[in-house]
Amino acid sequence: RAYAPVEQIVSGWRQVAMAHGAWGALRAMFVNAEAQIERTPMPIPKGRIQVENVSGAPPGATALSVANVSFAVNPGELIGIVGPSGAGKTTLARLLANATPPKLGAVRIDGARYADWDPSALARHIGYLPQRVDLTDGTVAENISRFARERGEQADEIGPKVVAAAQLAGAHEMILALPQAYETKLASGGSGISPGQAQRVALARALYDNPKIMVLDEPNAHLDSDGEVALIRALQDCKARGVSCFIVAHRAGVLGIVDKVLVLNRGQLVEFGPRENVMASITARAPSLGARPERELRP
Questions:
Q1: Is the dihedral of CA 5, 8, 14, 19 positive or negative?
Q2: Cα–Cα distance, 154 to 148 (Å, whole number)
Q3: Which long-range contacts (CB under 8 A, 24 or more apart) does 32-39 make?
Q4: pLDDT band at residue 277, thresholds of 50, 70 and 90?
Q5: Is the pLDDT of residue 208 over 60?
Q6: In terms of Cα–Cα distance, which of 245, 205, 201 is closest to 78?
Q7: Helix, strand, coil shares of the chain as percentages rounded to 5?
Q8: DSSP SS3 for 237
Q9: What confidence score (pLDDT) does residue 213 get?
Q10: CA–CA distance, 138 with 122 (Å, rounded to integer)
Q11: d(C-alpha 201, C-alpha 191), whole Å
């Protein structure tokens, strides 16, 4: 019995050593971290996007999944991003949403590089729906508003914008049917609601506060027919308001409304242009691109 505490310490020594190593790594990171640069405030952007020789990789990876990609998009254009699995579509979406910094090149909004913006200021103008819907522990309203109250915004200003975003996403009636409507608590990862409901809430979050850029990575993966109709309506509304939209999607319903299509293959931009021309080219070259069947890609 006297030796029991010693045995417990010995059995837990590995965890103690790992914790000590992690603490040392954190200290080194904070010591070597650069001071935050106070950036000059930029004017509200119109949404003109320029991608200049951009190369990027997923978080934690060293091999490039997008290499030397360049194109430009005007405000109000809907861009469909297609390509085979592993082509780099999700990485390009993360680069456009400023969720991942480019390894090389630059993404510009109205001529200014993303890197020239204060990150929190730029985030207000970008709506991002990632491929993996990741809601946070909090209420539905807090998730849609991106926890705006934590940033100092007033509740009487947040509420109307939350409802407007939910209505635009076709999620308002669905949210009202939840046990506590907008105040329904969600666990980490959005557990407590179905994947389709979580995707609608995440779409409302992307639409919150009228962003100038929308980046949607497979936004209809878990949607039923009503959800997809609401998604198309939201995209058409964004187009009418001059929002630049990028949609990674395979279903014809979404691709059928885009203005231009961007084709990626093995990280390279294969083709970019008007939807009709590019989709006809995809159909003709599907075997060489490893593309999906025509019924999935053709509007």
A1: negative
A2: 8
A3: 39/116, 39/117, 39/118, 39/121
A4: confident
A5: yes
A6: 245
A7: 45, 20, 35
A8: helix
A9: 93
A10: 24
A11: 12
